[in-house]
What does this fold into?
Amino acid sequence: MNKRRLVVAIIACLTVAAVLSLTACATEESALKEKYEQAGFDAQAFPFANANVDKELVDFAYHGLKNANSSQVEQVFVITFNNIEDAKNYHDSHVLDKDKPNMIRQGRAVVYGSGNAVDLY
It folds into this structure.
């Protein structure tokens, strides 16, 4: 009887851990979108081809655009890779690209775009 309770408890713990990890990811993405929306950015389709990134390596991608109809357009691109090594490789390969200004890497995330937008991350 005790073995059965132990197995049930382990399964319950694993289920709770899985749900919490999925919820944490969704919350992080939602918080990021909300932060940029509050700053006046509109979410756009992420340009994987122009960003030179393989979708298979990416956990989450965000492209925000602000002041689209003015001369002071601001953009931000956030790419969260599946692992840190892919993020490092992408950053190291593209940090000097002129079309990817102000690039930074924080853990699995690589962010680039206008200075204020990157600072907001």
Observations:
- The helical segments are 2-38, 48-51, 84-94, 115-120.
- The beta strands are 42-44, 58-66, 74-81, 104-106, 109-113.
